[in-house]
Amino acid sequence: MGMAVSIDIRDEHAPPDRLDLAIAQVTGWLEWVDVTFSTYQEGSEVSRIDRGALAVGDAAPEVAEILALGERFRVESDGYFDVRAGGHLDPSGVVKGWAVERASAMLLGAGFADHAVNAGGDIRLRGVPGPGRRWRVGIAHPHVRDALAAVVEVGDGAVATSGTAERGAHVMDPHTGRAALDLASVTIVGPELVATDAYATAALAMGAAARPWLDGLAARTGHEALVVDADDTTWSTAGFPFAPPAG
Could you tell me where the beta strands, DSSP code E, fall in 84-168? Predict the structure, then answer.
């Protein structure tokens, strides 16, 4: 998927062989996802579907699952999230969160209840990082290099950011076909990473229209948001989980 994935497991008593087996399982899963869903590899199933060389029904069943999720988020976002926004099939906005969510479930199933899986800054967190503590996640500032816009504190949950800091204006407004430039970053905190990541992408594409939509989303689903506008104005939904000062 063109990004680094890091795994942070907080179990100092884990036998090395059990830990190695769990990491190998997760690595194998992520490699399969990359081969299947990559938009950069001509032989991937997604690339073949995009150019009409493979029917969805003949692909791995997970492909149909991803496309169904994409349609769900397209409807929920009034079309601002669209896996065909750029004129080609690109379900990456669903695949990343979905793949990390399953990787986290694999670690949990292997007995590692306290862990974080981070894929390009989108993170699934479970358990605790230590006794009496909660996970603290820094949100990169889109306008100031090596600075943080905020720090959030999360228990079991997910944090996803969509913005221009790392990849420039890479999100399109599907309704206009132009790059989404009104917002510099949208961070959403939610219970799992699939929807959390998709909602962040949709809100970035909405631009100025994102504020009432995000307030409504928080009221309906509990997903809380922090937004940095292109002009460096910062605002958030009422329940965004800002971390208290360290110390």
Answer: 115-119, 122-126, 135-140, 148-154, 157-163
Q: How far apart are CA 94 and CA 122, in angstroms?
A: 12
- The CATH homologous superfamily of the domain defined by 10-236: ApbE-like domains (3.10.520.10)
| DSSP-assigned states of every residue in 158-191 | EEEEEESTTT-S--EETTTTEE--SEEEEEEEES
Backbone φ and ψ for 94, nearest 5 degrees, come out as -100, -40
Digit-coded pLDDT (tens) for 40-96: 999 999 999 999 999 999 999 999 999 999 999 999 999 999 999 888 999 999 999
What is the per-residue pLDDT across 193-247, written as a single tens digit (0 to 9) for each?
999 999 999 999 999 899 999 999 999 999 999 999 999 999 999 999 999 876 6
Alpha-carbon distance 147 to 138, whole Å? 9
Beta bridge mates, 90: none
Compute the distance between CA of residue 67 and CA of residue 53 in angstroms, rounded to an integer: 17
Task: Provide the pLDDT for residue 176.
Answer: 87
Q: List the chain domain ranges.
A: 10-236
